[in-house]
């Protein structure tokens, strides 16, 4: 019976509820809690809420049951005594296990030895090997062109197996513009020095402005290259040791290059490689709509044209929305914007001032 269906003064309801719960307790002992609640018209949720303790009583700590196959305390002490003995103190558990078997003695498995040592805090690296401090991830900020460059070298297959040509490239982190490239017959520090000095002089970059990032290849770490950059007032930056993704922009450009539909399996000679790369880098700089810079071309971003083009794109999309707004279900269309760089660069305004535009593209 529900109390809302009983006609009684409001002040009598608490006494009625107390009497009903007392009857529920007595009836539960005879027929069970479920049947008692059904007979008296009390939901089980109400019953449990009425009898709930707040806060709940603390549960007793569970005693972990010892596995029947586990070593006894006496056996554990015996194994530890053997492991701590002068004969075996400097040996690995695998070696101790093998020596004991050769002597016709079995104490426990190799994994159990490790488990006992770990339990007592006796497992750690003991070999005499070099340890290196953690290195900071390179964080470079490019707010305009010719502030941060990335350079690298990749191999192009020659006419026969085992023959290669080396492609040197420099890419501007801000605009993804290929500032310079060179195909050579080999990879060495002399060519690297020549390539860097020529490219830096081409853009007339003042000392103290430019940072050049690279991986840890031999030409990048060469003494003459370091002297050249120091003399030109260029800061050099390197990837962390054994970290392949610290130079992502050059690696991404090489993937774009080698996954082109017309990229040949092999080049017949170095002139063929240079001719193909000429066409590729013209396309990459002038015609390639790069997803990392808001689908602009590297040329437009590098030479300050991206802001004007973005306004034109916005006008086209606004006109399309005004003509048929029902086709844009969620919101008006917007022009693509450069995504946030994850490693070396922070996004800058697309119409940031750039260097002077050359007379010919």
Please, could you describe this protein's structure?
This protein has 13 helices and 5 strands. The chain is of the alpha/beta class and 361 residues long. Among the domains are: 3-51, no CATH class; 73-119; 148-286, 2-Layer Sandwich (Nucleotidyltransferase, domain 5). Strands 3-2-1-4-5 form a 5-stranded mixed sheet, with helices on both faces. Residues 340-361 have low confidence and may be disordered.
Features of the shown structure:
361 residues, alpha/beta, Nucleotidyltransferase, domain 5, 5-stranded mixed sheet, 5 strands, flat, disordered C terminus
Please give a quick description of this structure.
With 361 residues, this protein is α/β, with parallel strands linked by helices.
Total E-strand runs? 5
- CATH topology call of the domain at 148-286: Nucleotidyltransferase, domain 5
Which of globular, elongated, flat, extended, rod-shaped describes the shape? Answer: flat
Number of helices: 13
Q: What's the architecture of the domain at 148-286 in CATH terms?
A: 2-Layer Sandwich
Q: Rg, please? A: 38 Å
Helix content: 40-55%
Mean pLDDT: 84
Euclidean distance between termini CA atoms:
91 Å
CATH class of the domain at 148-286: Alpha Beta
Map the helices and strands.
Blueprint: H1 13-31, H2 33-40, H3 44-51, H4 73-84, H5 93-102, H6 110-119, E1 148-157, E2 164-172, E3 178-184, H7 189-202, E4 211-214, H8 218-221, H9 223-231, E5 235-238, H10 248-258, H11 270-286, H12 298-302, H13 306-323
Parallel strand pairs: 1-4, 4-5
Antiparallel strand pairs: 1-2, 2-3
Helix pairs in contact: 1-2, 5-6, 7-9
């Amino acid at each position: 019976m529900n109390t809302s269906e009983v006609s009684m003064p409001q002040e009598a309801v608490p006494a009625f509820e107390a009497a009903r719960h007392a009857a529920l307790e007595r009836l539960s002992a005879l027929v069970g809690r479920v049947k008692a609640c059904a007979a008296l018209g009390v939901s089980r949720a109400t019953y449990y809420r009425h009898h709930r303790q707040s806060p709940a009583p603390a549960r007793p700590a569970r005693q972990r049951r010892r596995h029947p196959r586990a070593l006894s305390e006496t056996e554990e002490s015996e194994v530890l005594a053997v492991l701590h003995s002068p004969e075996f103190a400097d040996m690995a558990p695998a070696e101790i296990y093998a020596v004991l078997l050769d002597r016709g003695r079995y104490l426990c498995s190799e994994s159990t030895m490790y488990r006992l040592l770990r339990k007592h805090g006796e497992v750690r690296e003991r070999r005499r090997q070099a340890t290196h401090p953690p290195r900071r991830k390179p964080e470079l900020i490019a707010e305009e062109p010719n502030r941060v460059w990335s350079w690298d070298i990749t191999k192009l297959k020659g006419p026969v197996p085992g023959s290669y040509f080396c492609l040197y490239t420099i890419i501007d982190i801000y605009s993804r513009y290929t500032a310079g490239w060179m195909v050579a017959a080999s990879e060495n520090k002399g060519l690297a020095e020549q390539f860097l000095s020529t490219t830096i002089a081409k853009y007339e970059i003042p000392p103290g402005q430019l940072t050049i990032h690279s991986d840890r290849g031999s030409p990048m770490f060469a003494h003459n290259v370091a002297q050249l950059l120091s003399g030109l007032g260029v800061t050099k930056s390197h990837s962390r040791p054994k970290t392949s993704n610290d130079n992502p922009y050059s690696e991404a450009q090489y993937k774009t290059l080698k996954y082109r539909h017309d990229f040949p399996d092999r080049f017949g000679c170095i002139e063929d490689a240079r001719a193909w790369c000429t066409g590729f880098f013209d396309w990459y700089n002038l015609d390639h709509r790069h997803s990392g810079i808001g689908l602009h071309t590297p040329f437009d971003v590098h030479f300050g044209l991206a802001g004007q083009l973005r306004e034109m794109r916005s006008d086209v999309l606004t006109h399309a929305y005004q003509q048929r707004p029902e086709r844009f279900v969620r919101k008006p269309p917007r022009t693509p914007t450069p995504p946030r760089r994850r490693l070396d660069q922070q996004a800058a305004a697309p119409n940031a001032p750039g260097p002077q535009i050359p007379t010919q593209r």
